[in-house]
Recover the amino acids of this structure.
């Protein structure tokens, strides 16, 4: 694989990045051939991946609006990736002008891109940190500048926890974040699962293998295991459901069958 | 196409009906949104998306019917689709299908069908071009953005890496420990300055070396096994103490830690060595160990070292034996006293050298235990024979005189031999047996060796045994006091008695003070023992005084050892005892040896002065054996001189040596001149007594009058005296 002349040496773009693959699924061009190659391989097994991503975005949009309606003006989006369009700050600041948004990602390219996109937006910023080290996130200067942890926060963990392996203690990380949040905060979460995919599990596994090959294993969890992330939260109606079924704006007749893969939910801290 | 169009129409469920142009436009937008929505990436809902398409539909509708036709409106609509995130080419295809099928139908408003269709076709062409242009622009812009982001990230990462690398470089170069990196074949790739300095080598020279060449004879057996495990990836690290040869042939000792470095996939890649130079510490340890285990004067192993070896020999397995020679030089004290310590030391060094030459075989050693005591040890299965030979060799090397300061000194020694099988006795017991046996050889005249005999051991009285038994002996009341009368030479009356302490030892019987007083002095037990003697004696004196109140002044003499003299409680203890017993101070006489007061300063004399001022008599014991500094007598708080028995010995013959008579006469005259009374010891005959009386001596004691005995004996004497 040719490395473009401009490509940095220290960031290995011969390794696909999940955020650039995600961008590709969403029709963006913030990606390189390795990313597209991996995305196409994954789509060989699950052609509906773009629809799943789109459903994620749509759910996130509804959830952010819900949070804004609840009076929440602070948003912490971990695993924000490459903001293509319809990002949290756009939705949140449209619904609630002056809403504060902090993005977090550990991919340096995603961070640099977010910085470019957010330039001039005083109410939004990006932290280069890892969900696996919640204390790094909570202790960041951006959080200190933009988020008042004594007031409710909407914590978004959209399409990220399925990239954290059990040995990296995702439940512990989520619990640590929860402990830092004020009562009335919301956890907005989506997670991949074999449940709901309109394919036999053996075939869907092909996609999991692709992610394994690019050293970004995709961890499919059962509904029960995903529900455990909401420990300490009260589920907001309608609970943990396929993405299109979470407070839809329209009837689901427009929805693609792939959109029902995985689960989405919102919880509120007591 | 027509068929398809009809089917589509059915598929999208659009029905014709009489309604206004706005409704028809909305219907067109609905159809369009339903066609395209499934292939967009938007996060909007379908109705929202329809709202986005409505203005585009209006533009197309107006362009269709405009007086002056402008196809560029189509370009703008194509570009707007891209802006609404319809970037999938399928979105364009479906849009064009919709425009082709429904624009004229819903928005034609009954115009010229031919013309409208032509306009619709041109709008579609323009839409395609506008879509392509916008998509291309967007694609390029996004590629540009992601590239810029990657570049920027690279800058940040590179900067961070650079800083990290600079820090690590500084740590690597500045580290006090040696750091080296080699590949798994052992080729050295990189080393730091500290490592170069340790090896005293250049980087170039070191880089040509292979780790596996660095063997050393002192490598622990597992060293290279650990190395092999590490380079095979079976071990993450190991730690060893390892020696290396420097290029100049000297040895470098290190604490070496080797770790395996793996690449991102976890495959073993390099080995990292961290080494700490322990050469000097090791030398220092060896030296400290040497100093701790060797005698500074002679360089022989010392008591500590010898005990280690003896313990090892005694702990050896079955069939192993040991032989021990315990040597004490005969008459060494005389050499020390007459020629001085320096000469004594030179003698010991020469003896040590000669002894060393006697024990050269493996398993043999010679050590100095202290003073003039040496030991030689032999180990192995044949020590029964070997130990005799060893002792004979030692006696033999001592035969030739030793030249010290131009004098030829003849050295003799007494050797106690212990030999036996390993595993039966401990080192202390063996050494005790050897010590006892050595004393037996010495008692038999010296210059010989004796073999240990368990029965003799059991009988032997060792200093050690007595010393350890002393404290309990006082508690158990094993001490008792005998009294020897002091007789007035003028009238032969008993004027007092000297208290002499004895030890009734449960095994050894009655022991005189010469056997245990030095030990008591050494251990400090003399203080409680002395106090006990004083109290007992004073009580006894009071008893006598009560019984023979009319027999005149009666005094008890108690010996004070040098150690008691310096004890701070002396005066108070004495006063307490006198008060408790209700005795007057003048009933007590404390005897102090002349040698204890030699060079005594005022501090030492102060307690004696205080006692003398109270009325306690102080007698200068053994007068005439020390320097007998007569001038010194004036400043001592003494009131009695006790002449040593050596003066009286010469008077046993008749006629007595006139010189001795003159000396005694002179001393007596001087003493009386200083207002001191004179007591003589060792009076054994009537003639002696008479002579001493004529010479003017005041008091006498000795076998002529009575041997030391129990207090009852003194009653009898006093009774005789009183009645006679």
């Amino acid at each position: 694989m040719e490395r473009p002349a401009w490509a940095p040496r220290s960031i290995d773009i011969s390794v696909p990045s999940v955020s650039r693959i995600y961008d590709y699924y969403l029709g963006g061009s913030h990606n390189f051939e390795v990313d597209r190659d991996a995305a196409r391989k994954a789509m060989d097994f699950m052609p509906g991946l773009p629809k799943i991503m789109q459903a994620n975005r749509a759910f996130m949009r509804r959830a952010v609006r819900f949070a804004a309606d609840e009076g929440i003006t602070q948003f912490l989006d971990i695993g924000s990736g490459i903001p293509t369009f319809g990002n949290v700050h756009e939705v949140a600041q449209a619904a609630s002008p002056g809403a504060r948004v902090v993005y977090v990602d550990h991919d340096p390219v995603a961070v640099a891109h977010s910085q470019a996109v957010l330039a001039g937006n005083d109410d939004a910023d990006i932290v280069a940190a890892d969900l696996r080290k919640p204390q790094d996130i909570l202790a960041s200067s951006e959080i200190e500048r933009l988020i008042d942890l004594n007031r409710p926060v909407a914590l978004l963990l959209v399409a990220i926890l399925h990239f954290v392996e059990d040995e990296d203690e995702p439940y512990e990380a989520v619990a640590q974040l929860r402990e830092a949040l004020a009562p009335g905060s919301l956890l907005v979460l989506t997670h991949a699962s074999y449940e709901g995919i309109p394919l036999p599990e053996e075939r869907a596994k092909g996609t999991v293998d692709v992610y394994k090959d690019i050293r970004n294993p995709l961890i499919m969890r059962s509904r029960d295991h995903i529900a455990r992330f909401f420990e300490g939260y009260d589920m907001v109606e309608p609970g943990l459901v396929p993405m299109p079924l979470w407070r839809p704006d329209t009837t689901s007749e427009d929805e693609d069958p792939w959109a029902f893969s995985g689960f989405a939910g919102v919880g509120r801290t007591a | 196409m027509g068929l398809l169009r009809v089917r589509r129409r059915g598929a999208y469920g659009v029905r014709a009906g009489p309604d206004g142009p706005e409704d028809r436009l909305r219907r067109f937008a609905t159809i369009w949104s339903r066609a395209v929505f499934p292939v967009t990436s938007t996060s909007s809902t379908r109705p929202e998306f329809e709202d986005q398409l409505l203005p585009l539909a209006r533009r197309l509708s107006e362009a269709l019917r405009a007086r002056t036709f402008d196809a560029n409106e189509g370009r703008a609509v194509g570009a707007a689709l891209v802006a609404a995130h319809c970037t999938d080419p399928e979105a364009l295809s479906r849009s064009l299908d919709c425009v082709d099928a429904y624009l004229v139908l819903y928005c034609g408003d009954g115009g010229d069908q031919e013309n409208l269709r032509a306009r619709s076709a041109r709008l579609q062409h323009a839409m395609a071009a506008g879509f392509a242009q916008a998509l291309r622009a967007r694609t390029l812009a996004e590629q540009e953005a992601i590239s810029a982001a990657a570049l920027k990230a690279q800058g940040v990462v590179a900067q961070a890496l650079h800083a990290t690398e600079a820090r690590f470089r500084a740590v690597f170069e500045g580290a006090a420990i040696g750091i080296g990196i080699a590949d798994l074949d052992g080729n050295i790739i990189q080393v730091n300055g500290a490592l170069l300095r340790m090896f005293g080598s250049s980087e170039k020279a070191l880089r040509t070396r292979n780790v596996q060449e660095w063997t050393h004879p002192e490598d622990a057996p597992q060293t290279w096994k650990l190395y092999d495990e590490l380079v095979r990836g079976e071990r993450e690290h190991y730690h060893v103490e390892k020696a290396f040869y420097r290029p100049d042939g000297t040895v470098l000792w290190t604490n070496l830690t080797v770790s395996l470095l793996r690449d991102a996939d976890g495959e073993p890649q390099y080995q990292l060595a961290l080494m700490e130079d322990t050469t000097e510490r090791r030398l220092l340890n060896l030296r400290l160990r040497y100093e701790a285990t060797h005698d500074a004067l002679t360089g022989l192993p010392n008591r500590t070292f010898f005990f280690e070896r003896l313990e090892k020999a005694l702990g050896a397995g079955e069939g192993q034996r040991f032989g021990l020679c315990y040597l004490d030089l005969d008459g060494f004290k005389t050499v020390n006293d007459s020629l001085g310590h320096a000469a004594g030391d030179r003698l010991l060094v020469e003896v040590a050298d000669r002894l060393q030459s006697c024990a050269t075989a493996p398993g043999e050693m010679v050590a100095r235990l202290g003073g003039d005591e040496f030991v030689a040890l032999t180990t192995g299965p044949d020590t029964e024979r070997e130990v005799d030979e060893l002792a004979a060799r030692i006696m033999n090397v001592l035969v030739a005189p030793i030249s010290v300061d131009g004098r030829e000194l003849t050295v003799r020694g007494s050797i106690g031999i212990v030999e036996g099988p390993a595993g039966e006795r401990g080192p202390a017991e063996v050494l005790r047996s050897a010590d006892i046996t050595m004393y037996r050889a010495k008692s038999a005249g010296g210059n010989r060796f004796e073999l240990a005999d368990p029965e003799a051991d059991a009988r032997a009285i060792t200093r050690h045994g007595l010393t350890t038994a002393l404290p309990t002996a006082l508690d158990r009341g094993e001490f008792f006091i005998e009294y020897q009368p002091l007789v007035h030479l003028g009238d032969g009356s008993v004027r007092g008695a000297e208290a002499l302490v004895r030890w009734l030892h449960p095994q050894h019987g009655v022991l005189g003070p010469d056997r245990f007083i030095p030990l008591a002095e050494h251990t400090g037990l003399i203080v409680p023992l002395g106090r006990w003697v004083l109290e007992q004696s004073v009580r006894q004196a009071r008893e006598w005084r009560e019984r023979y109140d009319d027999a005149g002044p009666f005094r008890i003499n108690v010996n004070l050892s040098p150690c008691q003299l310096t004890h701070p409680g002396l005066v108070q203890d004495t006063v307490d005892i006198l008060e408790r017993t209700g005795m007057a101070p003048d009933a007590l006489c404390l005897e102090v040896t002349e040698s204890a007061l030699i060079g005594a300063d005022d501090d030492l004399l102060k307690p004696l002065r205080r006692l003398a001022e109270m009325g306690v008599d102080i007698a200068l014991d053994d007068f005439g054996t020390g320097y007998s500094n007569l001038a010194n007598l004036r400043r001592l708080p003494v009131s009695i001189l006790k002449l040593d028995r050596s003066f009286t010995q010469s008077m046993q013959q008749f006629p007595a040596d006139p010189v001795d008579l003159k000396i005694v006469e002179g001393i007596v005259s001087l003493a009386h001149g200083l207002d001191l009374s004179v007591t003589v010891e060792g009076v054994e005959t009537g003639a002696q007594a008479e002579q001493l009386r004529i010479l003017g001596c005041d008091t006498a004691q000795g076998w002529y009058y009575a041997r030391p005995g129990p207090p009852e004996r003194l009653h009898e004497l006093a009774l005789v005296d009183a009645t006679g």
Summary: The mean pLDDT of chain A is 90. Residues 174 and 229 of chain A are 7 Å apart (CA to CA). Chain A touches chain B through 38 residues (CB under 8 Å).
